[in-house]
Amino acid sequence: MATHKVTVRLNQQQLELIERTVEKGEAPDPEALIRRALREYVEAHPPAAGR
Amino acid sequence: MPGDKIVQDLVLEPGTGKALEVNKGQKLRIEQIDGGQCADFNCFNLHDYKEYFHTGRTRHMHGLHPSKGDFLWSAPPRERPMMYILEDTVGTNDVLYPRCSGFLYEYQYGLPVHTNCHDIQAEAQREYGLTPDDVHDSFNFFMHTGIDSGGRPFIARQTAKQGDHVELIALFDVLAVPNVCGADVMATSDFAFKPLRVVVSEASEEELATVPAIPTFVNQRGPADFRNARIKADRELERDPAYSPAFTNYPIRTTDLEVMLSEEEYAALRSLVATGIYGATDGEALRYAFFSWWIEKFMNGPKHFEDLKT
């Protein structure tokens, strides 16, 4: 499966929020959480509809 | 009101205000005698005047027109609910406009000596040793305001009628300071002063039971948490040579987190980037989408975010 590497710049506070969310069981790791967020966000807010 | 155990019951005449001790569990009622009168309002912790009502946090939590079921919050870093709005028979309160002041009437009307909420508050607060510098932005009860299509605030005609009232429950001991708004040449009270009735009474068990549970947080900080808890008693500002900055989480450090996206996920990300509003790069758009999602899904309280209404 083709994959694309995207680099996200985060500070220590943003990482803390991500890690706390992972610790609550929302995803197995930060990368999985971000991927889940992307999928769910785009599904809820299709770009064609605009923001 | 009938059957309430009354502690104080008085009339505020135009041009005046009154500092009232309202203890925890007591109720303050501000009532229209003739109707159409704005009441400006200050509030302090009775045992620590440095904790006082904050329009900004209250506006953030409850919007521009707080009403029944909302709280009056104290300023950061205290940030505690001070009073609970038990009843509001009108619903036209305002936390957008600042108090009127002597400057305003002199500048806008050419009237150097004129009733104004700042000076009325200062005079009422003087009874408890406070100074004009201690007056803070008002909660404006019965002030009918809005925002026009251009984003500018406006004052609309009064809708409060005779007998209309608000009732506030004190959540800890406070000094509550209502005043008859000093604006008679502005639209605030329809260009006429009217007296207001104020009543302090004991809230009933049933009324106290309506106050929502109030969570506490470590960031609701008081003097015991301050690096400098001493109240400055002189006016001159002088540098502390022993000062060493201790900013929270400083220095801010960034880390580059690599995220591997599937073809489908990457296409979704690119669709966001293509809009031009999520950021210029894939990484910026992914970060924006992530935190937008997080706010929508997990954030408590008002979200204040476009498309993510609470």
Can you walk me through this structure?
The complex is a heterodimer of chains A (51) and B (310). With 51 residues, chain A is of the alpha+beta class. Helix content of chain A is 53%, strand content 18%. Chain A is built from two helices and one strand. Chain A has helices at 12-23, 30-44, and one strand at residues 3-11. The termini of chain A are far apart. The mean pLDDT of chain A is 92. Chain B is of the alpha+beta class and 310 residues long. In chain B, the strands form three sheets. Chain B has a six-stranded antiparallel sheet. In chain B, strands 2, 4, 5, 8 and 12 form a five-stranded antiparallel sheet that branches. Chain B has helices spanning 55-62, 102-109, 117-125, 205-209, 263-275, 282-298, and strands at 5-12, 20-22, 26-32, 39-45, 48-52, 71-73, 81-88, 139-141, 145-147, 153-155, 165-170, 174-180, 196-202, 254-262. Chain B has six helices and 14 strands. Chain B is globular, with a radius of gyration of 23 Å. The mean pLDDT of chain B is 96. Chains A and B meet through strand 1, helix 1 and helix 2 of A and strand 14, helix 5 and helix 6 of B.
Can you lay out the helices and strands and say which pair or pack?
The complex is a heterodimer of chains A (51) and B (310).
Chain A: E1 3-11, H1 12-23, H2 30-44
Chain B: E1 5-12, E2 20-22, E3 26-32, E4 39-45, E5 48-52, H1 55-62, E6 71-73, E7 81-88, H2 102-109, H3 117-125, E8 139-141, E9 145-147, E10 153-155, E11 165-170, E12 174-180, E13 196-202, H4 205-209, E14 254-262, H5 263-275, H6 282-298
Antiparallel strand pairs in B: 1-13, 2-12, 3-11, 3-13, 4-5, 4-8, 4-12, 6-7, 7-11, 9-10
Helix pairs in contact in B: 5-6
